[in-house]
Amino acid sequence: MKYLLALDGGQTHSLAIIADERGAVLGAATGGSANHFREPGGRERFIRSMRECIEGALTQARVPRNEVSAAYYALTGVHAEMPELLHQILPAGKQIVAGDKDASLAGATLERPAVLVLAGTGAIACAVDGSGHEAVTGGWGYLMGDEGSASWIAPLALSAATRAEDGRGPATVLQHAIPLHYGVVNLRALHPVIYEQRINRVQLASVAQVVGEAANAGDQVARSIMKKAGTHLGKAGVVVLLR
C-alpha cells in the first residue's frame, strides 16, 4: 500500500492528512501557522508547525514516515528554503510545494474555466481557462493589499469603534463587542494589548468575525465595512475573469 501526505498550511493554522492510494483518509492533525516565514522567529515557527501536524497525522494513521511515497504542501506563502525543510521533516519519495490557490481551486471545482476568490486572513483571486492559462490578483499581504480579507477588515473595524467611542463617528456595537472578543472591559483596556503586541496579527485579524456577526445582527457600521470588503473581493474576481 502507498501512502500520501497532503498538507494545507495557512496563516492561522495548518492541517495535514494521511491517505492511502485508494483515497481513504487514515489520519489527520492540525498545527500552527505556516506564514510570515521571514519575520523574527518565523522559520522556527514554520518548522514547529509543520512537524506538529505531520507527526500528528502519521501517528493517528499508524503509518511509518518511510512509507509515505508522496507529499503535497499547499502553503499560503512559499519561500526557497521550505522544500528542503519539509523534506527533512518527512523525506517522501516525491514532494510538491506550492501556493494554496491551486489546492483551493481544486477543492472548489475541477471544472474549467473557473474562478476562485479566496478570502481568509489574506485575500487572493485566480481564474483558469479551458487551456490551463491562469490569471491571479491579490495576495500582496496585509501591509500592501489583501483588500476584503480579515486583515483588511480588522483595522477598519477598530477605527470605526474608536471613532464611535470618541463621538467622531456613528454609534456601533463594535465599540463594545471588540473589547469583549479579546476579554477586556473596553477599548481603553484593549489599547495596551494591541500596542504592546500581546496579540499577534492573526489574532488581530480575528476581529473580522465580530464584524460579520454585528453585520448579520443589523449594525449599520459593520454592514458598511462588510459591503466594502465584498466589493473589493468581487472586483478581484472580475479582474481575473477579464484577464
What is the ordering of alpha helices and beta strands? Answer: EEEHEHEHEEEHHHHHH
Largest sheet entry: 5 strands, mixed
Kindly report the average pLDDT value. Answer: 91
Low-confidence spans: none
Structural class: alpha/beta
**Number of E strands:** 8
Distance N to C terminus: 43 Å
Radius of gyration: 20 Å
Instruction: Report helical residue fraction.
Output: 40-55%
- Overall geometry comes to globular
Strand order of the largest sheet: 3-2-1-4-5
Q: Which percent range describes the beta-strand content?
A: 15-25%
Number of helices in the DSSP assignment: 9
What does this structure look like?
With 243 residues, the chain is α/β, with parallel strands linked by helices. Helix content is 45%, strand content 21%. The protein is built from nine helices and eight strands. It has helices at residues 42-61, 82-89, 100-108, 150-166, 174-181, 187-195, 201-205, 207-216, 220-242; strands at residues 3-9, 14-20, 25-31, 68-75, 94-99, 114-119, 123-128, 134-138. Strands 3-2-1-4-5 form a five-stranded mixed β-sheet. The chain has a three-stranded antiparallel β-sheet with strand order 6-7-8, sandwiched between helices. Helix 4 (150-166) runs antiparallel to helix 9 and helix 8 (207-216) packs across helix 9. The N and C termini lie far apart (43 Å). The mean pLDDT is 91.
